[in-house]
Amino acid sequence: MELQKEQLSHLEPAEKRQVLIEALSYIQDFSQKIVVIKYGGAAMVQEEFKVSFARDIVLLRSLGMLPVIVHGGGPEVTAAIKQYGLETNFIDGLRVTDLPSLKISEMVLSGTINKEIVTNINIQGGHGVGLSGKDGHLIRAKKLKHPGTDLGYVGEIEQINPELILTLLDKQYIPVISPIGMGTDGNTYNINADTVASHIGVALKAHKIIFLTDVLGIMKEDKLISEVNQKETLDLIEQGVISGGMVPKVKGMLFSLENGVGSAHIISGMDAHAVISELFTDKGTGTKIIS
Ligand SMILES: Nc1ncnc2c1ncn2[C@@H]1O[C@H](COP(=O)(O)OP(=O)(O)OP(=O)(O)O)[C@@H](O)[C@H]1O
Ligand SMILES: [Mg+2]
Q1: I need a surface site. Which of 57, 70, 97, 237 has the fewest CB within 10 A?
Q2: Contact at 8 Å (CB) between 212 and 39?
Q3: Cα 18 to averaged position of ligand 2 atoms, centre (Å)
């Protein structure tokens, strides 16, 4: 933890004491509480932040919190599809997924990205376990019917079976979940990772859900919106201020809050130790959605 020590070295003793007291009270509150962290593909671009993210997660686990990671991987999936000479299109923030794109998506999400996160956690001394929604029937999905367009193998969630996650948490493991589900028809489905994170948060009755992405939070005219309620959020979608990949994120957040998750936040993953500062300081950095 040399980095954190260096970062505090400029503080006066009284300030250090204040930081410590603030953090300790949160540590007590969070003990044995489940926190779902959606790790956006867009936030995974820089190597140094991948390492600091893994370090934070291992630290949270060692403090008795129960982190569950759900990851995306949009940019890497897009790059892989292009490498195969194929095209990729989005409609309403969802990737149109034909069979070749599905196979590439599963390979990148459940393979490369999932195992890279597990590797980083394990290097930091944690015990990461990579899962896809297929493992232990974690995510049962069906084809998403989208008005006017066939999105191919894009799935919607029918059911989350959280037993496997709970078993892993009980044995001190850190679950790392890719957003791939399976249907009773035997088909594989590509599901938006924000939607997966919010449904998993609900199934686990999570204390908090945090979305790490490549922007500071919800932006309007280049300004960060620090707090927004349900009605204002829906209005922002209606006005087109919230668009693309931000739509499933905020919809997932509203779904989580309506169904028992304690709080929902969007923060920037382009900042070292973003998760720690969100959890252990009074002043949140990104957008908090309230019901
Ligand atoms: N009002 C808004 N405020 C902030 N970002 C917005 C807004 N409307 C749309 N966006 C877009 O949403 C993007 C974040 O969603 P995106 O799906 O690209 O990332 P992610 O969900 O973190 O990654 P992944 O989809 O790979 O998991 C931002 O980079 C931005 O382009
Ligand atoms: Mg996204």
Answers
A1: 237
A2: yes
A3: 36
